[in-house]
Design brief:
CATH architecture: Orthogonal Bundle
Structural class: mainly alpha
CATH class: Mainly Alpha
Number of domains: 1
Radius of gyration: 18 Å
Order of helices and strands: HHEHHEEH
Number of strands: 3
Distance between the termini: 26 Å
Number of helices: 5
Helix content: 55-70%
CATH superfamily: Winged helix-like DNA-binding domain superfamily/Winged helix DNA-binding domain
Shape: globular
């Protein structure tokens, strides 16, 4: 027998809770990074490029769990500020390679203490068990 539809269950929607938490977490990072002229997503792109070196849009998008078009849009904004370079791969004009510029490296290093403050604030709010759960969820395949 089919359960009766009780929309009150939606108050406990895990998707809604996760999206709300993600917005609040991002706001903490954005607030700390704002004095450096950065948003959390931009800082993440810069630091990933510092750690990985030159990377294609597709490879970086995959490692960030981000849609290619979203990364392309963000990369264009960062490139316009001179923090990264976007070049076409010689073999395929559709394949774009991202690399961080010296100015982008300097900015990421300058903003790192602000990122660290945000990281500590969010980690404290979640506690060790919550942080571990968050990492497990980000790595989980639910499909």
């Amino acid at each position: 027998m089919e359960r009766a539809t009780d929309l009150a269950e939606c108050r406990n929607c895990l998707c809604l809770a996760a999206r709300s938490a993600a917005r609040r977490i991002t706001a903490v990072y954005d607030r700390e990074l704002r004095p450096h002229g950065l948003r959390a997503t931009q800082f993440t792109i810069l630091t990933m490029l510092m750690m990985r070196g030159q990377t294609t849009v597709g490879a970086l998008a995959k490692s960030l769990g981000m849609d290619r078009t979203t990364l392309t849009r963000n990369a264009a904004l960062i490139a316009a500020k001179g923090w990264i370079a976007v070049t076409a791969d010689g073999g395929d004009a559709r394949l774009h390679v991202l690399s961080i510029t010296p100015a982008g490296q300097a900015l990421a290093r300058e903003a790192f203490p602000a990122w660290r403050r945000a990281q500590e604030r969010v980690s404290t709010a979640f506690g060790p068990v919550g942080v571990a759960a968050l990492h497990r969820l980000s790595d989980a395949r639910m499909t």
